[in-house]
Fold:
Amino acid sequence: MTEDLTPAEAYAAALARNAEQATALAPFREMYDFDLDPFQIEACRALEAGKGVLVAAPTGSGKTIVGEFAVHLALTQGRKCFYTTPIKALSNQKYADLVKRYGADKVGLLTGDNSVNGDAPIVVMTTEVLRNMLYAGSQALSGLGYVVMDEVHYLSDRFRGAVWEEVIIHLPESVTLVSLSATVSNAEEFGDWLDTVRGDTEVIVSESRPVPLWQHVLAGRRMYDLFEEETDHGGRGASRREVNPDLLRLARTENTRTYNPRDRRRGKMVREADRERERRQRSRIWTPGRPEVIDRLDAEGLLPAITFIFSRAGCEAAVQQCLYAGLRLNDDEARQRVREIVEERTASIPGEDLHVLGYYEWLEALERGIAAHHAGMLPTFKEVVEELFVRGLVKAVFATETLALGINMPARSVVLEKLVKWNGEQHADITPGEYTQLTGRAGRRGIDVEGHAVVLWQRGLDPGHLAGLAGTRTYPLRSSFKPSYNMAVNLVDQFGRHRSRELLETSFAQFQADRSVVGISRQVQKNEEGLEGYREGMTCHLGDFEEYALLRRDLKDRETELAKQGAAQRRAQAAGSLEKLKPGDVIHVPTGKFAGLALVLDPGIPAGRTNGHRGFEHHDGPRPLVLTAERQVKRLASIDFPVPVEALERMRIPKSFNPRSPQSRRDLASALRSKAGHINPERHRKNRSAAADDREIARLRAALRAHPCHGCDEREDHARWAERYHRLQRDTRQLERRIEGRTNTIARTFDRIVALLTELDYLRGDEVTDNGKRLARLYGELDLLASECLRERVWEGLTPPELAACVSALVYESRQADDAVAPKLPTGNAKAALGEMVRIWGRLDALEEEFKINQAEGVGQREPDLGFAWAAYQWASDKGLDQVLREAEMPAGDFVRWCKQVIDVLGQIAAAAPREDSTVARNARKAVDSLLRGVVAYSSVG
Structure:
């Protein structure tokens, strides 16, 4: 094509090529054996131009290329680059990738429990490690040129998200920030905030998937496409997509019951025909079993596949089902390769532990190409599964949704068993964002031509709803930022209270709150213009009509209030009269469908309530069961008795009376009419209205008559305008309260935290006391409780295992909210110390309530959980893995993860505890050594 260029164009093209060759991007591109995508090139050029970047792109699209270019730039410029990730597994993975490219001498790793070459020019770390370095003013920050924040959308995480914002706000201005995010619907808003706090930031959004994604529903033996073939199969929004009509027809047929119980009147022949039709229908449509699904995907060439099951037990059960079904996805050569890799990776695990960990059953499944992947597994086992899957030696993985968060395990297909998952409080539909994240694993770049997302048919599945999940790209980034006690003392120590408050007001949380206020403010402005017009409409030449309207409104409010009181009093009287009824009382039902004579069969007083007892409240009150004179047995409600009722007569109810028997009802109703049919009920006299004797009403009526506007000919027109004015003014005040509630919310929370810390002598104005300096070293959800325990010397004299048990209460959280069984605890000093910790927490909880620090808003100290204390004590006391796991009733992966967190906090306590006249620091270090053994020591990922 160059022959077609004019000399001027050819010269310009040559200049452009030469300019490109002179950039750092040119040699970087040569490091890859594929060409970069346009969004990657755009982001890299912005970085080289000195701008920060936010890259939002789908999973698997190659966002990390931009992060790697920041590493390349740092090395080229002789500066440092920190590459941060949200989880240790990702840190380990990235560390291995960068070592392969740049060599072990240039790359370091810091993950809290791993420290490798921390002074290297490139350091991979978890975000918390960088946050701690910033607060400590670490020397490692000198020469830092770039920070890559991988998976930056984690700042939505309600437990850890605040850390991302802390880092972004506190990084030195000289550092260029590279933010890599999943596709979010408000990337521009996030970019605007980054522009505000970090300076010039380029936002690059890529919606297109590198590998097109086909969506399917597997029902019985048939795989249905979710969308019609001629439409956009990638779900990339290029054309309007219609749901497959065959699938819609199937849903209508299957979700409409073919057998109607009412048809029983039509006889046995109809029922048999219905059942036969239903059997034929069900022979075509069913939810395929797990082995059946894998077999089907294998037959269609759609493996490797990840099946998402939102339950650990479900993942393990799925593997067992595939084994029992005799599934084998690997040939003999692959089986041998799997065994070699597994034995090499697990060589350091003692033989006695392998049996406890279910190693041999796990290995058998791996050799067949099948595995589970969830947080309850030993980290080493999870790493092996990930490695074998990437190598193609494991072809079917059953995983919980945690696998979707960042780990590099792309597959050809992703299977979703259900579109509902447990969110910690209830079973809820998965969101479009979660669906996108899960199905984003389907389609391996450079390997697969297309990816496949398969949803299993379930009764009640709505294809339209599924199409909405698959086609929606609404995954908004919402800040979860909240000030903490540790954050407060660190900020005040570095910047003072006033500057700290200003810094917190630059958070993304406040930025979003302020933006939401803009629309409300506009509405307030419109309302105020409307109020001005209404004020003109109600202007009266005789006097102040606003004052007159207020008198009218006060009168109406008082009359309404008295009417409500009267109605409540009548209801109470009626309910009281119903409570006095007994079986056999003859009454007259005053209103309703069953008005007239009735016999009380059962007074219907709620269980546990006796006549006259007012301590029991029931929202409906008594509901008597009666027989009417028309032979009907009905349960009446309080609405049938607007006035009190009393017994007109009494009758004996035969013991043989059966309310289901028409004959019994007829006989008793006849006796009722004979006994009381001649009685005319006494009409209930209406009480004199309370308004007639109310002094306030009399005063308001007199004031109205005396007001000049009362005699105006246009009084009612003015009143209509005044009513509109009042309604709009009320709405405007509500909007103003919403604005007030959203303005400076973060700063107000910070003020309350500072006030509490001042009360406890952690802060004195802008000065951080010795207590505060200790708190500044303690990071975690229960930072203040840990600091108070150190201050009150609760842990003095404890042995290392006892200290490990106590510290476990600061980190552990039971997966079941309210365990019925009290946890087993170590005896002696440890038990006493744990009790003291709970007492201190109670005192702090009361203080937080006094200072209006609300745990429901994510601020404050939750109650310490003692559920892991016995396991931590046993393990630190050198007990065997089999015994500890059996008594803890806990999966190995959970046990290792909690041990790692206890070790992390013990390290903080060792650093924060007083050096003189204290055993805590020394015993905390010993406790770390006691815990860091066996499975905990050889698990490289926590």
